[in-house]
Amino acid sequence: MARSKRRTTRLNPQKSRERSPQLEPLSPLSARSSLTPVPVLDEQPGPPEQAPEEAQELVQEAPVQPALVASEEDTCPACKDGPADQQSTVSKESWIRCDACKSWYHWACAGNGADVDTIDKWYCKSCVLEKPSRTITFKPPARKSARKRAQPDYVNLNAGVEADPSRWLRVIQSKPIKDDEFRRMNGSDVGLEWLEIDENAMKEPIVIENPEGLGMKMPDTNFTVSDVADMVGHETPVEVIDVATQSNTPGWTLGKWTEYYNKEPSTRDKVRNVISLEISGTLLADRVLPPRLVRELDWVDRFWPSTRRGKGQAYPKVQLYCLMGVASAWTDWHVDFAGSSVYYHILRGSKVFYFIRPTPANLAAYERWSGTELQSSIWLGDMVDEVVKVTLYPGNTMIIPTGWIHAVHTPVDSLVFGGNFLHSYNVATQLKVVEIEKTTRVPKKFRFPYFTKLCWYVADKYLRDIKAKEEFSPRVLESLEALCSYLVSEVRAMERGSEAAKRDAKEHVPTDRIKDAPALARELRWRVRLAAGTTSDDEGNERPLKKALTNGSASVNGGVKRKRSPMEMQGPETETSLGRVQFRNFQPKGWDVVEDLPKEEETTTVQAVYPEEVVGLQQRWVKWDDGTSGEDGGRQALVERKREITVRARKIDGGLERQRIERVFERWEWSRVSDEESVEKGDVEMKLEDDKEEEVTKKSQDGATDGMELVG
Known about the structure:
The chain is built from 21 helices and 25 strands. The strands form six sheets. The protein has a nine-stranded mixed β-sheet with strand order 6-7-16-13-18-11-10-8-9, with no helix packed on it. The protein has a five-stranded mixed β-sheet with strand order 5-15-14-17-12. It is elongated and about 110 Å long. Mean pLDDT is 75; it is low at 1-72, 81-92, 144-162, 536-581 and 674-712. Keywords: Chromatin regulator, Dioxygenase, Iron, Metal-binding, Nucleus, Oxidoreductase, Transcription, Transcription regulation, Zinc, Zinc-finger.
């Protein structure tokens, strides 16, 4: 295809119509290759094309050959005549080939100032004039979260107008930006106890100005970017962002980046940024340890098997990042992949964060803005309720919770360490961001690695913990319910989806731990709801759930009717003894005996205040009992009561379990008042439901043994 041909290094480039046939020029290099010219080896001409990886291996440092610098063969169709254009090879060392006419050009002659390494498909001026539909395209950016890349401004590119890296910094000056009121905390206070006692914990960013007490390990303050290259490796590839275009610049190594970073700011050709250098498994990783709270919450640390996190094994490596940016760097609005939370420590320099709260309306605005023409022309802050600014200095650490939309400005050269982590305190928002990623078609390489597989590991561990009677806070149980909905949607894809959807869903199940994924997902959902007190064995009484994520389908069932299960076709007797079972591969334990006792009815007369006569009396309705008789200012009321009692029992190990469920229905009717008061008769019908459990004793042959179990 034209793209791969243009980007490879060619030892015998096609000569344009204006080239002299007398001499072989230096081999022009592709956008992906190094910018250093390679002399032609006539005795070993090599193949006409190489794969991009092979092309990079051919690139070697070579001295400039003076005999060829000013030769006629070193010109291109766009070179100007006259001595003013007789420049050194250094200024014309980058070549590019037109994808239409296949002619090679100096990027310095035919380009417009943009970085040649960011170009994906390119056409010369004459080919564009010949066919205006031909447009220049760019390579995708290095790393992004729940958004697609903005469309480059091709009009300005073709017109020779260079992108402005400081554009949004000037826009900010005229926008309403609020100073943050986020909490500043001591490192010793940031722990699991804080999460359990503070209902707002991990819902807003927090700043820890002094790292003492965080349980974190970082390099010394005199640690530099050169030290990063020494410990990680000078030849290690690194993804570099061109701030002006917010796109990736390939072909960089840590050694090359260090040379760029250490230059005087005035001598740097562009403003560049590194935000995705993951250092797990390197020498530097031994000197970086995330905060204690992060390690205690992180799903990868807690649930991914330690035996499958060794060297060379595939697992989510997102907890140790080294970020290096120069002054004026800007990272556009984004949400970290899968809505993951972030810890961020400033070792050197400074960072300015701009935050947007992840409300449903703000996330919807972000989804409309991301990856569209709005992204390059509209300040996202104009589409949301407010933007909050936070400035971090050396030694500061910040923890950013799930789903917060943010942009980052680097005012001075900076060195930062941070990482991403998923946790069990806001799974619903994490899954919402995953849904946005799917809707906006974020490429898989920019999503949280092995996300669904990690969710299965999490579900497996929580199921074992709940069965072992471990208790969890309501906030965790609410998150687990959202996780169950997601996994059940994966199960439905396995059972009812297309062949591709079935295959994809099954590939995400870690079969080393989970043998029956459908049973696990549905049993966990049932047990979570039971632990939260929102349902009983009868799944037919389950409360409505939030919209479940589906595997590429807008409907939960993928448009396929659900078949009736054998349990549903057995009739009402099965429902009475076992409850309606509406899922496969899991069946709650049934009751041996279920009996409804005779109904009891009675009518009494009491003195009680009429509902309309006391403000706020509604709060007292649920507290009324038989003691209401004789209330001051009360009127005579006729109360009809009906009592229904259901008793069910079943054998358990070592004894018997019994539930006694008593329901009381009341109807209150006040007597009419005198004509002067002109108040109509009022009826209040209330339903008071009281579930009571009783414990019974089963005697063994040798004596009396108490066996009891409380059932919620």
